[in-house]
Write a structure and sequence with these properties.
Heme Oxygenase, Chain A; homodimer; Thiaminase-2/PQQC (chains A, B); Putative hydroxymethylpyrimidine/phosphomethylpyrimidine kinase 2 (chains A, B); 52% helix; 11% strand; transferase (chains A, B); UDP-N-acetylmuramoyl-L-alanine:D-glutamate ligase; 2 domains; thiaminase activity (chains A, B); phosphomethylpyrimidine kinase activity (chains A, B); alpha/beta
Amino acid sequence: MTQSTPKILSIAGSDSGGGAGIQADIKTFTALHCYGMSALTALTSQNTLGVHQVHAVPVDFITSQIRHVITDLGVDALKTGMLYSKEVIEGVVDTLQELSVRAPLVVDPVMVSTSGHRLLNQDALTALQGKLLPKTTLCTPNIPEAELLTGRSIASVRDMLSAATRLNSVNTLVKGGHLTFSVDEVQRAIAEVRRGDFGDVGDVTNPTNVTVHGETFAAAATNNDSTNTATAYVLDTYAQLRGNPSTQGTHKSGEERLVVDILYQRPQGHLDIFIHPFVSSTSTHGTGCTLSAALAAYLGGSRSGSSRDTSACTRMTMAEAVQAALTYTRLGIEHSEGLGAGNGPLNHMHSMHRGTHITTPLTPRTTRQPTPLTTHLITTAGVWWDTYIAHPFVHQLATGTLPSSSFRHYIAQDYIYLLHYARIHSLAGYKSRSMGDLEAFARITSQIVQESAMHRDYCREWGVDEKTLMSTPESAQNIAYTRYLADVGHSGSLLDLVVAVASCLLGYGEIGRRLKTSANTGCPISPGVVCIKDNNPYWKWIEDYASDDFQAAVFDGIDMLERMAEEDHLGADHLAHLSNIFTTCCKLECGFWDMGLHRL
Amino acid sequence: MTQSTPKILSIAGSDSGGGAGIQADIKTFTALHCYGMSALTALTSQNTLGVHQVHAVPVDFITSQIRHVITDLGVDALKTGMLYSKEVIEGVVDTLQELSVRAPLVVDPVMVSTSGHRLLNQDALTALQGKLLPKTTLCTPNIPEAELLTGRSIASVRDMLSAATRLNSVNTLVKGGHLTFSVDEVQRAIAEVRRGDFGDVGDVTNPTNVTVHGETFAAAATNNDSTNTATAYVLDTYAQLRGNPSTQGTHKSGEERLVVDILYQRPQGHLDIFIHPFVSSTSTHGTGCTLSAALAAYLGGSRSGSSRDTSACTRMTMAEAVQAALTYTRLGIEHSEGLGAGNGPLNHMHSMHRGTHITTPLTPRTTRQPTPLTTHLITTAGVWWDTYIAHPFVHQLATGTLPSSSFRHYIAQDYIYLLHYARIHSLAGYKSRSMGDLEAFARITSQIVQESAMHRDYCREWGVDEKTLMSTPESAQNIAYTRYLADVGHSGSLLDLVVAVASCLLGYGEIGRRLKTSANTGCPISPGVVCIKDNNPYWKWIEDYASDDFQAAVFDGIDMLERMAEEDHLGADHLAHLSNIFTTCCKLECGFWDMGLHRL
């Protein structure tokens, strides 16, 4: 172990059914590779249908548990859940003070039951606000709790922003699960915030004090400053067509409901807005407990996943911890099994079989995120993917302004490239261990050969016959790219090779889709660059890669990649190696465009 | 998921420090991919230094928790821990009866504190024996608890056997952690039991009613009927020299202390004796809770590890569940981090980063088991490894009776084999991604070339020059083996190739060691086969492979194999593929001996 296991203390109630309370906390701590400890505040005889009986634990016993645990074992972070009275709250605060506890404290202000009943009387509420929150590193109220704590109703993103700035904890995360918004509403709210129009939020005035975090769907909506700088419409389309069976053929953009969580950090007055699709499920019992436990785990130092992750020495930022905890919790809902007759618990073990965890960006495949590896590869390729997709060569293809000499040079080189690209797929066939894969690679090899017919057609127009075409001297860039693919094939595993060839497939699919969409809608592919169809000598090229056949081949490629990744139980090292391969191929693709443009 | 997650209910106390009680149970259930639920019987304010305060939970509340959990969520297995009074015990039994619970029930009869104090009064003890044990699928007393329950003292393996048959639970596991035995004592006890001399054990009379399970060390001691049919002294020697730093240079066979656990099953009256080395550690707080929780998890259906393990549909036998639970618990002690100032807790997360679990045989590397992959490969090769190591060709080399024509044929073919074996290591160098591995493979390639000097020496004696030797036509068996290695190298990853070449390295190392030891001690390598040195024309061959240099190369090979496996996060599928490769190579080695013997 590079560093010791983080020790996290939960001060909360017991849920016999196992879905919430310290049971959910211990499960979360364990799943995130932390050592869990607990000071019980109340016992419940509970199941998915509700709480049937409560047994309060005496205050002295609560503080005794806290004291004995911390003085002997120490603590790296804490969370509180159900603190049922003023005396309990004061006892907890006083004990932590007495022990000079400096570790991050996450407070889940349990005050309102799922049926809407007040769980804390006014004295307790006053003690919470007056004594506990000022010592709280991060408070995580849901909407009803935030309304109670601020005395204001919350019905919009703006209201949530306002509430987030008004609690007196050091940092506040207002959880939006009780409200959903349309894509339009969220986009409008973000636009307002970017304009500096925060509404009633006190000391937040500077637009650079806001960061918007979105998932794939929302990333497309918030393109300009999403932390996902590399986007891929092919992935969005794949998700729509093959990811979520319930939306096949019926998905309409705009019908998607979004959930927003807002993090407000002091003293810098920074707002983080987290957007993700609403997951409709009845298995949400223990969501709040799980989230606050995950937050405590991450703030306490959890990097879960590979115990040899030496980069774990750097603590996560608050926003990173929130993002990771939100993802962990959301996956728990998505992977739930519907236990019990009422609101079932989350599945805390969703990432455990994989041996990695969500702090390495590879999450398990779900209907919401069916392309974890492909998304990771594109995201980590970052600016190299962006440049590849939006290269001047590509822009000039779109606007029909590419010099014909550049295009001819490119086409001739690309023909030779496709020969090698095809033989690389034969090598992949050789490395296969199943009839299905063998047949798939044989089919792809044929499809690549057929794709090269376009190149021969263009050359025929130019009076260049196939024999001349085949004897084109390979440029250095062409050799670099094709023989890099061959070397990956000889040095590594089949998955390594499938990742290497994915760059060409995904990139051309992305470009074809973007350019054709641009020509149809008039929307730019980059500022000032709109694709045209009429009088564009390269329209045939664009249509080829935008065609249903080619796009289907792209989706098949994504299918295969994700399936192989799932079977391979990728560790962090191998994942980094795959990212390296994919990014290198994106760079080589950029070099290929350069070669075309400048006839190198 | 192939089948739903097993739901396991713990009826036990709370340990605020997190090492025992329902906290340890929840951690264990979670690590073993089960859904954990809990009915709390008592709260403790506790840390590693001890229990400081206890808060009893009213009986009605205990039974209420049990009832609400089982009626809503159902249950696949249960365990009980601290049941502090007659009323609690009767309440639990009556409630389970009322709910018609048929799921396996594991009872950890918590009755004696670590300091030796009685925790249950006589009424409670009577209720436990009279009402709970008859409904108990598996009771897990430690030595003091077994003494209390049987009224007899326990000081030997025989006493443990007797106690195991005397409890009135359906099955009983007497845990031996409080006693350790010498290797001699254990061997004697096993010999007695095999003779049918069970001592005072009632209905156990038939020697076939006993199965002995041992770890690597004890397996060597109980060679004849160990479930590990394939053994490897090279692994034992490796473990002694490189596995356990504390025994380097000082290890004396016989000084090892062993722990014995005894499982007695009704109605068949079967005894399973589990032997493993004693692990000296102060981090044993919660061992009993962890073991009983793991037993409940496995009996409830946990196959943990890959969620795609379709063989999970078959329930484990009682003995398999006990073996798996003992291993899980032992690893928890071995991987403990010494938290707190007193007796620290186990590490329940020891196998989680790996993504597999101990029901697939690959455990994490520990000083006790430093060769999990190599051991697995040899064990799964089973009879093919045994035949390879003890082939008639090998026997005839040992006794010096191998016809010289066979030896000459073999040596000539083996020379060509070594050429290919060396170039395979160059291929491995090509597939390497680190300077260290590159250099290692270059070095091994040289060493193989140097090893072939022996072949040239023999041939020189026979008047065969190197040129003639090199032009020996390759036999079909030689082509099969060498080109199989090459194909593994081209088709798969570097690890695949390292596993493939391991068979030759390990096997020849094993044979050299066994034959030389036999010649030195006069002990047979197989019934009636003793290796001789004097007048043995093949002694030079034997000495070569028994030499310190060659044995060191074997250990280096094991080092590399285990390191690469650890880095690779092997999933179940890949592990099976590696086993397949290794077993195939053992078969090919057998074929190579056949080729030599019969001059094919």
